[in-house]
Amino acid sequence: MTTAITVLLVDDHAVVREGYRRLLERDAAISVVGEAADSVQACERAAALEPDVIVMDIGLPGASGIEAMRRILAHRPQQCVLMFSMYDDVIFPSRALEAGARGYVSKASAPEVLVDAISAVARGERYLSPDVQKVMAQTATHGRSPVDTLTAREFEVLRLLARGETVKRIGEKLGLSEKTVANHQSVIREKLGARNGVQLARVATELGLSPQGPGTCK
């Protein structure tokens, strides 16, 4: 008898988690063993449950799903993480894959796509939903964007700045000193060609990083 794939669901909306739990448990080959609502819970439950696959949303309160994944992989490098998000702009799947995600599925995908993705990444394969594949293929022909020059930490700082977080709060969320965050902010402005906070906010909105944009453990 084949052992079911154990899954940890990470999403900040309880109703969403419940819906996906019911969807996944229709398949006898998948067993949802736990849920988490933010990056801190995700790290704690990943360590306690050691699931085969973590289905992780990016837009979590506090540190993002990508940051949570980085922290989880730092302690358990073999952990399989599948990003499942409303964001299908190429910035997000690219950053998620660079940070160690085994796959990326947009929430606009058909229900069976998530099931297929979980099965694929559990087998050690990489999986991108068809819509994400299309966006990444189109973008590959346009060259690198300035945001591609940001490190993973700088990208996370930019994401939090775009959400209106202060330097102090960002430091608390990421476990960094205010001076370190301020230094990251200066480097980000230089790389993106933003002379001040207003211009940086404009760039973040254009990139879909702000809450009103098209796509926004310890």
Protein described:
By secondary structure, the protein is an alpha/beta fold. It has two domains: 5-140, Rossmann fold (3-Layer(aba) Sandwich); 146-206, Arc Repressor Mutant, subunit A (Orthogonal Bundle). 50% of the residues lie in helices and 13% in strands. It contains ten helices and six strands, in the order βαβαβαβαβαβααααα. The chain has helices at 14-24, 39-49, 65-75, 91-99, 111-122, 130-140, 152-162, 167-174, 178-192, 197-206; strands at 5-10, 30-36, 53-56, 80-85, 103-106, 127-128. Strands 2-1-3-4-5-6 form a six-stranded parallel sheet, sandwiched between helices. α2 (39-49) runs parallel beside α3. The longest helix is centred in the C-terminal third of the chain and has 15 residues, at 178-192. The termini are far apart. The model is unreliable at 212-218 (pLDDT under 50).
